[in-house]
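Supplementary Methods. Inverse-folding protocol.

Structures were first reduced to a discrete structure-token string of length 348. This string, shown here, constituted the complete conditioning input.
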């Protein structure tokens, strides 16, 4: 196939859509290709196209999400075949599933792993420990999306910092959110994973504040959240994966980020770029954004108190342009692509 020719750098990602890590890579590879670098993309899991679809040669493995061991083995073989046909100079593993498969893909190419969060493999700790031992033994290279990250069990302090890109078409310079006066709905945006994102906090907060709640995102924890919310009789809607949740945010919505930890915090960056009112969990991965104290809460009780405090003053929870401009500047796609190119083409 023609599209397997002349690909020097091959990014491997979970799927074409699904979260900030996938979208950021889509945007980055498009901009890298625009600068004349020959890149390609492998998407392992099947799924819909993202709002920002890759425009580079793309190979879909089409593994079913949550498929069993046989589907994983099939995906490994298909991925290996694609890589062997292309024979790139380097493969770049983006997130846990590509990291798992890539740990056992051997060839003349160099391997890079992208670290997105401070606690990867949190749901499969022992498997993660095994994979990281293999990667350590293979002496792979590391890229981290935030300067506060240190690749877990990597055996090295050396990691190149390349932030995630956000698109000018979708976020930078986007139409600013119109905010109403009163808080009517609470909003969660992101994957429904219990340990990291803590979406179960949202049910407690909604119940105690007596607010309607909407989830934009999907994940393994969704069913349990649906059952719990129904049992409590809460006003909760689960919208699943939405390519652009920001267009569905209403004037009287308040975004809450209850995460126990974050990597680059793209949900926060994108919300601030649109002037969406937000309050965040008071953990170091989120306080590094250096917003004012009113935007941080410790625990469910304080989130409810903050909601009550700004019940009729929702605009008071808009961070302001000085924060968004500072966060956005380093994530400009052109700047991110330049950093990737400098890394990929460096002389060994």
């Amino acid at each position: 196939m023609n599209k397997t020719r002349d690909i020097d750098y091959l990014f491997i990602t979970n799927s074409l859509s699904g979260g900030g890590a996938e979208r950021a890579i889509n945007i980055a590879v498009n901009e890298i290709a625009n600068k004349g670098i020959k890149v390609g993309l492998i998407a392992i899991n099947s799924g819909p196209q993202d709002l920002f679809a890759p425009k580079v040669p793309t190979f879909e493995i089409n593994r079913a999400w949550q498929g069993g061991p046989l589907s994983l083995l099939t995906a490994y073989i298909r991925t290996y075949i694609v890589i062997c046909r292309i024979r790139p100079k380097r493969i770049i593993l983006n997130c846990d599933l590509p990291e798992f498969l890539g740990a056992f893909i051997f060839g003349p190419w160099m391997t890079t792993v992208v670290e997105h969060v401070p606690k990867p493999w949190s749901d499969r700790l022992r498997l993660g420990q095994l994979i990281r031992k293999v990667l350590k033994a293979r002496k792979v290279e590391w890229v981290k999306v935030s300067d506060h990250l240190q690749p877990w069990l990597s055996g090295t302090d050396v990691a190149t910092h390349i932030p995630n890109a956000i698109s000018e078409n979708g976020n930078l310079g986007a139409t600013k959110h119109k905010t109403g006066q009163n808080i009517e709905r609470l909003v969660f945006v992101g994957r429904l994973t219990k340990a990291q994102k803590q979406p179960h906090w949202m049910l407690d907060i909604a119940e105690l504040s007596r607010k309607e709640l909407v989830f934009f995102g999907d994940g393994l924890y969704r069913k349990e959240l649906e059952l719990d919310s129904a049992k409590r009789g809460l006003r909760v809607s689960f919208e699943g994966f939405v390519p652009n949740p920001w267009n569905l945010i209403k004037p009287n919505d308040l975004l809450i980020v209850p995460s126990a930890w974050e990597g680059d915090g793209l949900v926060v960056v994108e919300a601030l770029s649109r002037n969406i009112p937000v309050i965040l969990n008071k953990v170091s991965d989120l306080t590094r954004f250096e917003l004012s104290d009113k935007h941080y809460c410790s625990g469910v009780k304080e989130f409810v108190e903050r909601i009550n405090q700004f019940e009729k003053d929702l605009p008071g929870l808009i961070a302001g342009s000085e924060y968004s401009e500072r966060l956005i500047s380093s994530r400009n796609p052109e700047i991110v692509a330049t950093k990737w190119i400098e890394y990929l083409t460096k002389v060994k």
